[in-house]
Every structure is written in C-alpha cells, then in structure tokens.
Amino acid sequence: MISTSLIEKFLQHCQQTPDKRCVVFESQTYSYADIRTMAAAWAGELRARGLQRGERVALFLDNGPKFISAYLGAQWAGGTVVLINTAYRQTELRHILRDAAPRFVVTDPQRNHEIKNLEFKIENLEFPLAVPFDFPSTIFSQFCDEVAIIAYTSGTTGKAKGAMLTHRSLAANVASVTEAWGWTSDDHLLLVLPLFHLHGLGVGFHGTIWAGASCELHPHFEVKTVYNRLLSGEPTMFFGVPTMYGRLLNEAAKRDQKPPNLRLYVSGSAALSADTMLAFERVFGQRILERYGMTETVMNTTNPLYGERRPGTVGQPFPRQEARVVHVHTRQPLPADEDGEIEVRGAHVFAGYLNQPEASAECFTPDGWFKTGDLGRVSADGYFTITGRAKELIISGGFNIYPREVEEVLAMHPSIAEVAVVGRPDPDFGESVTAVVVSHDATLNVDDLITYCKNNLASYKKPRHIIFANSLPRNALGKVQKHLL
Q1: Which tens digit of pLDDT belongs to each residue from 428-457?
Q2: What distance in Å separates the CA atoms of residue 401 and residue 459, rounded to the nearest whole number?
Q3: Rounded to whole angstroms, how far apart are CA atoms 412 and 466?
Q4: Is 2 found in the same domain as 44?
C-alpha cells in the first residue's frame, strides 16, 4: 500500500517494527513504539484542548524528542504544523504569528518569554499530557490534500512568506528522495540540522521515518562531537551545509585518525564550492552528493547515488519530478548551457503562499510549472547548475551580470574570507556591481581588488564599488541575507 502521508507511514512502521530504534538523542534511544506513545499523548492533549482539523500548531522548539513527538502528534490530530526558526525574536515572531494565526504554540521554557512578550494569547503545552489519542487510520486518505506544514521562506530577499506543503506533496517528495538515495531501514543518519528547517525535517527526519530507519539527533552542529561520531563508524549517512563540511576538513587537519567511509554524505541549503567538494574527497575518501531544494518544494534535483557527482552542479531531477530552464522574460525553454530561470513541476511542489493569493498565482505558469526564482543552466546531459537568484540579477549598462560569478572570482583571492555581490542604483548604468568583502588582511585595498577582478572577469562584470565589512548577515542555515546588505 502506498502511503499518502508521513504520519500514515510512521504508524505502519510502528505496527510492523515497534521495537526498532527510531531516534537517539543525548545517549537515550527511543523505539518506534516510544515515539508513537509520545506522539499519541500530544495528539490527545491537542484534541482535548479543542484543536480542530486544519487548525494550526506552531513549533518554536530546539531539536529533540519533544519536537518530533509534538510534530507527529499535531499531524496525527489533524492539525497543520507551523515551523518557527528558534533564532527568531520579536519582529520575526510577530510577523509569523500574525500571518499563520496558530491556535497553539509549543515552545521551551527558555523561549516562553519571547512569546509572552507579544500581544498574543498563547498556551505553552508541556508534559504530562492527556489520555493518548488514537486517530482512525481511515482518515489519512481524506486529508492527504490538506496542508501538513506551513514553512516560512528564509527571508534572504525580503519578508518571509508561509509556504503551504500538503501531506501529499511531502509524501511524494520523501518517496522520491529515499528512492534516489537508496535509503533503507538499515540506515542510521547523523542529524545535526535544525528541525525547524526543511533540510533537517523534510529531508533528514522525513526520510528516516519513511524508510523505517533511525537517526541520531543532536541539538546543533558541534564539529568535535560530529567528528567523533563519524569515527565511531555507526552512522551510515550525514547531511550538512557547506560550512559544516569546511569545519570538518579543518578538524580532520588536527586529527591523526580519519573516519571510515559512510554510505552517503549530502550537502545543501547553500552552494558547495568545487574546491570544498574535491578537498573533502581527498581527505575523507568520498565525494559529497550535492542536491538542490527550497522551502516551497523541499527537494528538486540531485547528483546521482551511483554515477558522476559533478562539482559545481546540483545534478538532475529526482524521480517523478521535472525541471527546466526558461528565458527570464519570454518564459520560453532554453537550450543547453544557456542561463535562465529554473522552473520545476511535480507532485512535490507546494500549494501556494499563506494569505498571498496574488503571489501564489504569480509563481506558477498556466501549465503548472513553479518559477523557482533561481537562475541557472542545464548541460546537454541534464546536469543543472545554479548561478544565482532572479531577483539578484544585476543589469548594468544593458548587460546581465550574475552575482555568483563575481563572488566566485573574489572568493579565490587569498585575502578574502567572505564576499557577497549586490546591485545598487546607478544613474548612468541602471545598476552597478557592488561587492561587500570580509578580509583577514588589513592591507587589502579597493584598487587592488578591482584590478584583480579586471584580470579575471569581463570589464563590465567588475565591481564598481567595494565595501569592507566585519561580517555578512546570514540566516540560521548560513545563507547571506542580501536584502539586509
């Protein structure tokens, strides 16, 4: 039987393998039966307090069994889960709670003051809970097209929007991911990504539950701890962002012992440089699998499990998904190796943005392609490369300039630690290329950098302005927030 929701798949595993390890957290092991009991308690408490089908339950929680059980319990009771970044404070919280209007917020005691300081009437749910709830299994097929999650976009280009993901879209996505990556019940994932983000939840935890596998969950990424767990040989998979892989390489340089081969390392949420990928392969003996996803779709493309994992690319569409590159203005499909905007289509795509019907309609073509807003190209053999964001495209003197291309050149300069390139209004050129640079060399000057760019880029692509900064503004997963720049 094909499951139509994650909770249905989870309960099937609970019935078939109740004693199997599901989650390990802080040295304590929770079986599928244990997680089911905890989730049932949450479902019972929410229903006892009056939660109705389709009403929203916000999770403002760190990684841990409480997050997992409250998440599953809310969906089991027919609710919609609203994910909240734990780094958010008053301004972001006020925006999300006003927009999503959850009936309940589940939070930790240390964050309860953030909620209480807002002008919302919020109930903070804690153990012990009410009598466990047993939702009829026949209901799952009825609400598969209802919204399971509202996940807010990362806000790298402006105010976050609530992407509505249905039970059906999440199930379609995780089925494709587990198939493409050969995920089985024997796998044990080392999971250090935040569960409030779909990289950690929608890929890491969903994949674990879908495959009937297990995961070792950590509150956050701590390089020494992660390296030691890799040395143990127990995890079969590790998912991370590029920054994590850079830190693992630095840690490896301090150690005499290198970890045994894992079945799979995966990178996402930001671009993985070819240098990092190849350096990791030299040191750890394995090439990282890079993939491409986003809040609205979870996963879109992947380098292959078996076959060439091509540096600088994000591979090909997952099974039963489509992707193409179109002209940013005419919206017509482009031939291989021409830059345009990436569009995707499939059952994995979200249902639209909460409370924003115009934005929802605008992001879809009449025949169902979702306009990702990501710029890129596709090779003749089907490998996609991301080159930037459509909203970040700089048009200077009639030329299209992709910030990532300029960033990659500047990032190769030995004195530059971090760089971000944006466009700023210019009376003569329309926009001018501006680079914000973090340097570890106090003697580095603007003229040297502009000369360096002239020698490595077409003249119209070189920055006309360079600004030195102590750091770049980043969100919780390390993406540069260019709207703040």
Answers
A1: 677 889 999 999 888 998 988 988 988 888
A2: 11
A3: 16
A4: yes
* Measured distance CA(406)–CA(435) in Å, rounded: 9
By CB atoms closer than 10 A (0-12, 13-18, 19+), residue 349 is buried
Q: How far is CA 303 from the centre of its chain?
A: 16
Cα torsion at 91, 94, 100, 104 (round to 10°)?
130
245-264: buried (b, 16+ CB within 10 Å) or exposed (e) per residue? bbbbbeebeeeeeebeebbb
CATH of the domain at 453: 3.30.300.30
Domain containing 54 equals 1-390
Q: Are 341 and 374 in contact, with CB atoms under 8 Å apart?
A: yes
Does residue 365 sit in the same domain as residue 403? no
φ, ψ of residue 378 in degrees (nearest 5): -130, 135
- Comparing C-alpha atoms, which of 317, 335, 318 is closest to residue 326? 335
Indicate if 419 and 365 belong to the same structural domain: no
What is each CA distance from 109 to 86, 106, 115, 127, 224, in whole angstroms? 13, 10, 10, 12, 28
Burial of 221 from C-beta contacts in 10 A (0-12 / 13-18 / 19+): middle
Identify which of 99, 333, 61, 76 has the alpha carbon closest to the alpha carbon of residue 220: 61
Q: Does a structural domain hold residue 479?
A: no
User: For 218-272, how does the pLDDT look when each residue is reduced to its tens digit (9 = 90+)?
Assistant: 999 999 999 999 999 999 999 998 889 989 999 999 999 999 999 999 999 878 8
Contact 305, 297 (CB under 8 A): no
Residues 385 and 397 in one domain: no
359-375 pLDDT, tens digit each: 999 999 999 999 999 99
Asked which of 357, 390, 423 is the last residue of a domain, the reply is 390
Tokens of 425: 């209004």
Domain count, the chain: 2
Nearest to 294 by CA among 363, 227, 358: 363
Instruction: For 329-343, give one letter per residue: b (16+ CB within 10 A) or e.
Output: eeeeebeeeebbbbb
Q: Show Cβ contacts of residue 81 under 8 Å, excluding neighbours closer than 6 positions.
A: 56, 57, 58, 59, 71, 74, 75, 148, 149, 150
Q: Do residues 266 and 411 share a domain?
A: no
